[in-house]
Amino acid sequence: MTSELTYEGTLREVQTDRGLLKYHEAGDGPPLLLLHGSGPGVTGWRNYRGVLGDFAEHFRCLVLEFPGFGVSDPGDGNPMVMALASVGTFLDAIGVEGPVDMIGNSMGGIVATNVAIHQPARVNKLVTIGGIGKNVFAPGPGEGIKLLMEFTDNPTREGLVRWLQSMVYDPAVVTEQLIEERWALATEPLTLEIAARMYSSKAFAANTAAAKASGMTPYWAQFHKIKAPTMLTWGRDDRVSPVDMAMLPMRDIPNAELHVFPNCGHWTMIEAREAWVSAVLAFLTRKDGQTE
């Protein structure tokens, strides 16, 4: 099935009160929502195109393109805030009721985790790829986040390559084709401006200070509220969200299991593709512990 799925053939769109949301749809069965990460030139299609066919054999896969990343309408807020708000809006707009399985990569994992905390009725099973939690031993922010801020402050091709290489264990994964497609979208003026709301060094510092001053309980201190069975997946060699971040969600999410893949960076679904797909499909399709 993988070879049959194309960008154009799976692309859909729906008009909402948050603007036009685009998404990719493939397969039949229970709904599976796939949420992408952040960073220069990212899209849901690019995060999941290599595994979409595998999951489409079992699920109705819905790959949402978050506002502000150059595919769906841009929006006028912080990309993380817009992403979180868009999930419920999207599911309602396409008529998906009841809990759905969710896979979230990095920022998408944080979004899915927040949905599981605050809107538990929307999430059946939860799978995260790196990203969530809090640094326990490694200093924060991680190397990959620092390189992301450097690129956002000064968007050069060399800076993009440095950031991309921090995402992986094997530098060969960063091909010229990958660099070129990421560069084209990452330097689109509006997309770059929206990214700066989150990842410029100035915005990052301001957002961090604002979060501390707000007195609000951070999401990582609310893991105990998650009712959904949860699978945490991590690359052992992740330089964006070091694997020690997994200790907190692994311990505090009541029904969580942790899978760590060797010789693998931040893109677990790409660098550990076969092992990751096998483990995630086994988790999503098994009957034990499934929510009612």
From TrEMBL:
InterPro entries cross-referenced by the UniProt entry: AB_hydrolase_1 (IPR000073), AB_hydrolase_fold (IPR029058), AB_hydrolase_sf (IPR050266)
Record flagged with keyword Hydrolase: yes
Pfam families given in the database record: Abhydrolase_1 (PF00561)
UniProt entry keywords in alphabetical sequence: Hydrolase
GO MF term list: hydrolase activity
GO cellular component terms, A-Z: membrane
Domain AB hydrolase-1, first and last residues per copy: 30-271
PANTHER family, per the entry: AB HYDROLASE SUPERFAMILY PROTEIN YCLE, MONOACYLGLYCEROL LIPASE
Protein name according to UniProt: Pimeloyl-ACP methyl ester carboxylesterase
